[in-house]
Amino acid sequence: MRLLIVQAWNRDETAYRSRFSSLLSYPSLTLAVLYALVPAGMFETIDVIDENSQHVDYDRVHYDLVLISFETSSAISAYRHCEEFRKRGSYVAVGGYHATALPEEAGQYCDTVISGPAEKALPVFLQDWISGHAKPFYRDTTVCPADYPVPARDKVTKRGKLKIPAVIADRGCMNACKYCSMRTMWKSNPRPVADVIAELKSLKARHYVFYDPNFFGKREYAIELMRAMEPLHILWASDATADFGCDHELMDIAYRSGCRGVVIGLESINSQSLSGVHKRFHNADKYEEIIRNIHSHHIGVNGCFVLGFDDDTEEELRSLPERVDRLGLDLCKFAILTPYPGTKLYDEMEQDGRILTKNWDLYNQHHVVYQPAHIAPERLHSVYREVWKNAYRWGRVSRRVFGSPALFHGAGGFLLGANIGFHFIGIR
Ligand code: SF4
C-alpha cells in the first residue's frame, strides 16, 4: 500500500519560489504532523509533497491513498489534485482550514473530508479505510495536548526553506478577531511545558520559530515555558499581540529565554478600524510607545498591516510606509483584508452581498475579493501595490535593518534576509 501526503499551495505563491524563498519560508510542520499521525507499518511507502517547493506528479507512481491538506487560497489547486488522483484510481481524503469551513464543498471533489484537528480523526479514518469502511465525513474536536504527536520533521523537504524548525506550544488564541480563520480550527489548549522543552532538546537547533498564533496569550503559561527555555540558550521568534509591548516583566523574561523577534498583527493605524473587527488591543496611538518598549528589550518587531477595513481611508493607507518608518518597525508586511469562509467577517459580508468572487485562488491576501466600504476594489488593489513598493525601497530596507535594536542581538542575519526577501516580493 502506498500513501501520499500533499500540502497544496496557491499558484500565485510561486512568487515565494524565487531564489529568495529560502529567506522566507519554513519546512512544513503540517506535513510533519500528518506523517506522524499515520500508524507505523500501515503503508509500505509514504511520500510527502510540499507544493510550495515541490511539484505534484500524478503519474510517477500509483498511490492507493492520497491525503491533501489545504487552505482557502490553495483550494482550487487541491481540488485539481483530487480530480487527477481519483482519475488514476486513488482514494482521496482532504482536510485543513478550508475543508473545515466548507466540508460540503470539499466533499464534491474527494472521497472523504476530515474537518477540524487531525489528531484523532485521521487515525480513525485510516483504520476505517484500511478495513474498507471509510465514511465521507470525519470530525473529532475533542483533542487534547497529549494527542499531539512528535512531528516527523525528517520526512519533510527542507530544500528552499529556512533551516529553522517550527515548534508549537499552543495552537489556539483566546481573542476573537472577526477575520481570523485560525479560530475555526483550534482552541487554546497549551501543551505541557515539559513536552515542549523535551521537543526543543531533541531538535538540538540554535534557532526556532514558534507557530503559536498568540505566544504570550496565556501569560502564566508563557512565563513558565520561557523560564524553562532559558537554560537551553536558544534564539526564537513567535507571534504576539500588541499588548505584549506594555508588559516589561514579560518582555524581560522573553529576552532572557532567547526571544529576538515578535510578529504583531498591528493591522491598522486607525483605532476605529481595529475596534470594528474586535481587536482586543485597539489603540493605534500607542503603537509607537509599544514598539519602543519592545526594542528596549532588544527584541525586533515585524508589524503586519491589513488594508481595506471599513473605517480605513485611502490617505491613511497610502501613508503606511511613512508610518512604518516612524514606528521604527524592523520588518513589515501588508495584506488585503480577506474574508475567509468560516469567519464572522465572511458571514457578515456574505449576508450583506459584499462578496465579489468565490474564486478561492484570489483569497491569498493579494486581491480584493469583497466590496470595500469607501474605496473601489481596483483602487484598493493599486494602493496595496504602491504601499509594498514604497515600504521596500532599498533606502528604507537599509535604514530598517541597520537601525534595528535587534541587529546585534542574534537576529541580524534574519532581519537582513527577510527585508531583502520582502523587497523582491514588494516589487512584484
Ligand atoms: S489575536 Fe491573532 S490569532 Fe488571536 S484571534 Fe486575533 S488574529 Fe486570531
Describe the structure.
The structure is a single chain. Helix content is 37%, strand content 15%. The protein is an alpha/beta fold and 428 residues long. It has two domains: 2-145, Rossmann fold (3-Layer(aba) Sandwich); 164-427, tm_1862 like domain (pyruvate-formate lyase- activating enzyme, Alpha-Beta Horseshoe), CATH 3.80.30. The strands form two sheets. The chain has a six-stranded parallel β-sheet, sandwiched between helices. Helix 5 (118-130) links the parallel strand 5 and strand 6. Helix 6 runs parallel beside helix 7 and helix 15 (394-402) packs antiparallel against helix 16 (407-427). The relative contact order is 0.10. Bound molecules: iron/sulfur cluster. Iron/sulfur cluster binds at residues 173, 175-177, 180, 182-183, 213-214, 241, 265.
Counted by DSSP, the helix tally is 16
H-E string: EHEEHEHHEHEEHEHEHEHHEHHEHHHH
**Envelope shape:** globular
What small molecules accompany the polymer chains? iron/sulfur cluster
Computed over alpha carbons, the radius of gyration is 21 Å
CATH topology of the largest domain: pyruvate-formate lyase- activating enzyme
Strand and helix layout:
Elements lengths: L1 E6 L21 H9 L7 E6 L14 E5 L5 H13 L3 E5 L1 H5 L1 H5 L4 E4 L2 H13 L6 E3 L26 E2 L25 H11 L3 E4 L8 H11 L5 E6 L7 H9 L2 E9 L3 H6 L10 H10 L3 E8 L6 H5 L1 H8 L3 E6 L7 H8 L25 H15 L2 H9 L4 H21 L1
Parallel strand pairs: 1-2, 1-3, 3-4, 4-5, 5-6, 7-8, 8-9, 9-10, 10-11, 11-12
Helix pairs in contact: 6-7, 7-8, 12-14, 14-16, 15-16
Bound molecules: iron/sulfur cluster (SF4).
